[in-house]
User: Fold these one by one.
Assistant:
Number 1:
Amino acid sequence: MSGFSTARQKMVDCQVRPSDVTDARILDAMLAVPREAFVPDSKRALAYLDLDLDVSDGGAKRCLIKPAVMAKMLQAAEIASTDRVLVVGCATGYAAAVVARFAGEVFATESEPALADRAKATLAGLGAANVMVRAAPAAKGDAADGPFDVIVLNGATEIVPQELCEQLREGGRLVGVFALSQPQRAAIVTRAHGDFGHRPLFDAVAPVLPGLERLPAFVF
């Protein structure tokens, strides 16, 4: 095994499996996708650590969220092989690459155009033909390609992402870290009969996606 292959195995065995992730499709995908390919060269040694890894390219801070947090959210979303999935705030595209291993079609948005371009190039280099990346604000989603069966936030939101929720089809699910109050929690939003239900999943912390921040309160 190469150094990165060993690190990938340890990430799954020591971070993801102990977090009650049992979906074999997710475990296999995370073993197959080279996370180091989505990380700047200067940070490749950090690619498999249990942290939110900054992959910014001179713009707003953008991260690959902790592997276990991402895996637990994907498991909660119960993604089917025929599902159309939107990954919001994809950064360099790692989460989209993982989802692409077991979903039907994957669409991804990233607010930083340079990172969106890097995501496109990296995904193409890995042969992820069922992923399309757009440069777009996180809060806007990708209405042109919706509706979606699943929407995954690659980060946290401090606001109710209503425009994203509206892009779910009937029976659709949105998963992400909600920082509307403390403590932050990963949660799932489901759409049924034209209404939305919200259910907390587990305590989690993640960097807030640009465009999903809470507006500053007005102070006299």
Number 2:
Amino acid sequence: MNIVLKNELTFHNTNFSYMEMAGQIWLTSSEVGEALGYSDDKAIHRLYRKHADEFTVNMTGVVKVTTPGGVQDSRVFSLRGAHLMGMFSRTTVAKEFRRWVLDILDREVAHSPIVTNGAKQFTDDELQSLCWLWKNSVRMVSHIADIEPLLRVAEHRLAPAYSSMPREYSRNINTARRLLERETMHIHADLCTSDNWRVLNELRIPELH
């Protein structure tokens, strides 16, 4: 995989000499740790190892970099990966760092829209509608789970179907949630969000089981 050194990005006193791989911006773990306010590299690596199972190959990886001491392995994070590290961090600047990463993502998405065969696949309005469809599906599964015990006690003919639906539907809902979370990473939402993007506060939560 080729690595191209690009211009710097700056967050407070941290200057990211970011790299480009497969058309994405990647940041070194040491600079992500510095930006988040950790005093040494060990802290950021401990934080990553604690949550390593939540990262995909599109969010982090290990590359070879040339240092004064020779060629060494270095962990890097894509912007999505850096944002997730900011979500796990509890430092005083973590919240501001997350917003900064989202601002960079906004710029990247503006220049690189989701495309399929040269055409944009979804607009933000369409993504918003899909997010609400996801929420409606979650509510539907919850209602099915509430009704199923009553159907079972009544020995209703639909009881077996209602018993299996929550498990089957939850798998698809979780898959859709991960896709929507990925495609809406560039959109900021928090507890103060009052427009229809408030749905993201529910979408960006642990999965259904």
Number 3:
Amino acid sequence: MTETWIFPDWPAPPQVHAAITTRQGPGISAPPFDRFNLGLRSGDSADAVDANRNALQQALALPAAPRWLRQVHGVNVAQLGPLPSTDEPQADAAVSHISGTVLSILTADCLPVLFCADVGSEIAAAHAGWRGLAGGVLEATLAQLGTPPARLLAWLGPCIGAASYEVGEEVRAAFVAHAAAAAECFVATRPGHWRCDLAGLARQRLAAAGVTRIHGGGFDTHADPRFYSYRRDGARSGRFASLIWLA
């Protein structure tokens, strides 16, 4: 782990590569975006974001430009290849079996989840805020992969931690209605409010879907200054990227 990049510590096959950016990358965004904002819809200059995205590709020697998504907290999953494109499909997850395709998820408190087949034949990346997670974005991603869940590896990236994430009763109700065990991921604070363990909920959903090899977690974007945090920084928070690709 470095201040500039985070490289997942998981037993992925050698042809699978992954990296997570931080605020401290080689970018040109001005305050309050702290140099390396990669989100086009966060209020930053489009020219700065484009320059930062180009710098990202060069700094990590990516095989192609990342395939960005127009994320809407939904459950759509895009099947992507590496062809250069300015198109950003409206989706909150993407899958690929094509070498050189760089999948990318932008977050600033929501949970990024990376997947790969244990033989390195395909990859996926998903954006799991509470709405998408409750709506089934992880299950939808698994359904688009040809690898059985038991043969997949998952890595949970940086998201807001339970100690920093207070939610209302509607959030808890959405998860508990799906599975009673979800109640274990909520701790009462004040009337009608709960601390929410987003990563813990993702682990439950993945395990229920048959994914047994789950790695990562342990971050708190709200408390860790390396990361953008919408809850900490407000509407002008930038976005960092979680990337995965096949060599």
